[in-house]
Specification:
Elements lengths: L7 E5 L25 H11 L3 E5 L5 H13 L3 E6 L8 H11 L3 E6 L13 H7 L8 E4 L6 H9 L6 E3 L15 H9 L4 E5 L2 H4 L7 H15 L4 E3 L12 H11 L5 H16 L2
Parallel strand pairs: 1-2, 2-3, 3-4, 4-5, 5-6, 6-7, 7-8
């Protein structure tokens, strides 16, 4: 469903930083080695003209998902949570059902597929058994992968034709090298599945640090718009991961500029309606 006039950031993170739990934050990202909490984000979204957010897991732990659900309960601008659950384990579906009963803001689940040593992890039967538990609970699934995983992603989503999937960070193309193929062709193939949506987020983190340009990134937005169309694209900031490369307001301004070619209803889809529909907000 659309939420008329409401602007949404469909992808960001919160954390209380520790080096042990966030080892993926390397020296190039030292600026985000600190806590990022709701009060920090609320200042950013107000300045950027964003009304509400969907908060996404950053650690693969049950404890973090519970913490995010608690934050959402006490902060109205957090409209939805994409958490983590042990989908490959027998207890995963029961845990999700328990959360859904208590927390209506749980709207999706994510696993860090890009971090698995096995590129075909998403095709494992135990993982897909967990995915089959999502649709009856009304939960979407966020796909976090690198561009090389896109062919596997097509096979993965084909196993679940009624399940809503959302591709994070436009599938992480190789922006640093300037390569468009085979990402562009494979993205178009994934977009042929009408139950798959796409987040325009995370582009700056795939670009050359300190050397990216708006024109360079727009080369990757154009194929996404062509493949998915405004009705299946949603804006995401990837805050605070974006901060070493781009502040919140600047990223929002870039995406708004790219969308000026579109009609007002189409822009509203990208900045609110699509996320509301995909996550059932």
């Amino acid at each position: 469903m659309d939420l008329p006039g409401l602007t949404l950031d469909a992808h960001h993170h919160f954390w209380r930083y520790t080096a042990e739990e966030y080892g993926w934050i390397d020296d190039s990202m030292a600026a985000i080695r600190r806590d990022f909490l709701p009060a920090d984000l609320e200042r950013e979204i107000l300045a950027a003209g964003i009304d509400a957010v969907v908060s996404v897991q950053a650690r693969q732990s049950v404890e973090e998902t519970r913490w995010l659900l608690d934050l959402a309960q006490s902060h109205p601008f957090i409209r939805g949570i994409v958490g983590w659950a042990p989908l490959s384990e027998p207890d995963g579906p029961r845990l999700l059902a328990e959360w859904c009963d208590r927390h209506p803001k749980l709207r999706g689940v994510r696993h860090v597929l890009q971090g698995e040593a096995d590129d075909r992890y998403m095709l494992r039967e135990d993982f897909n058994r967990g995915i089959r538990s999502l649709r009856p609970l009304g939960l979407a699934y966020d796909i976090l992968i690198f561009a090389r995983h896109l062919p596997h992603a097509c096979a993965f989503v084909d196993r679940h034709p009624g399940q809503i999937f959302i591709l994070d960070h436009i599938g992480k193309p190789e922006i640093r090298t300037g390569a468009l193929e085979p990402w562009r062709t494979q993205l178009r193939e994934l977009a042929r599945r009408p139950h798959v949506y796409c987040k325009v987020s995370g582009l700056v983190t795939e670009a050359e640090p300190g050397r990216w340009t708006e024109a360079q990134l727009e080369r990757y937005f154009a194929p996404v718009l062509e493949a998915f169309g405004p009705r299946r694209i949603m804006f995401g900031s990837d805050w605070p991961v974006c901060l070493p490369q781009c502040d919140y307001a600047r990223w929002a301004q870039l995406v708004r500029r790219w969308c000026r070619q579109l009609s007002a209803p189409e822009q509203q889809r990208i900045f609110g309606g699509t996320a509301a529909e995909a996550y059932g907000l």
